[in-house]
Specification:
By secondary structure, this protein is an alpha/beta fold. Helix content is 30%, strand content 24%. The chain has 7 helices and 12 strands. Strand 6 (111-116) and strand 7 form a beta hairpin.
Length: 279
Amino acid sequence: MAFTGSPQPPVLKAGCRILASGNWELETPPHSCPDPSPAYLDHALEFTKPPSGTDAVVVARDVRKSYDSRPVLRGVSFTLRPGERLALVGPSGSGKTTLLNCLGGVDRPDSGSIQLHGEALETLSSDGLARLRRQRVGTIFQFFHLLPTLTAAENVEFPLQLLGTPPAERSARVDALLHRVGVAHRAHALPSQLSGGEMQRVAIARALVHRPGLILADEPTGNLDTANGENVLALLRELGDETGISIVLVTHSLPATRICHRVIHLRDGLIDREESNPA
């Protein structure tokens, strides 16, 4: 991609740089990245100190939501900073997925407010919410939700087609991300030809390809075996550190919360308690 201005954008940790516009870009590696080593996995599943940025990516205030007169969220408030990883945990029915859907503009709260990158979601039309999701949010699902008739590369490219990104730039971004997540050699495979771990890596690349500021991950390891789940968590943490992206992770797995800076425990639609990195 061409850059405006004479100096090269500064390097942001390994394999990533910030563009003059403030967006981030992964540098294309020379070859496919292998699975994280056991030593890296040990490091990646340790707590890390939260980032120091102060501008909020998400501000949720007294969010409430009911279905068929049954309260699901009963007044949830929190703030998410740039580069911060936040885990939402709790028993089934505690409101985790409903809150995630409200953050992504898929569901609308009955009351309260959610600001995403400074935009109040309650003031946006359905088209406005769709625009915000396409441009500023990436989503990772438990069951991958890859389009079955598209190859891995085409699945990753699809969000860029919706944004009208030029073909040459689409190709460069897709190639860089497939290399980065370690599945470049599977670029032309259909989802039915991929393993569960490979499908989730493709889904992670798809969630990142449009360079959002926020990733919403709904049980991203819930459909994977232990080894693949640990690899995916390590990858999410490393990509979060490289790009400065914020992540909200819904999980039933307490070990998965160890890649996050904060953990919010939900119960009966309320925040029961919150834990921070003790380091």
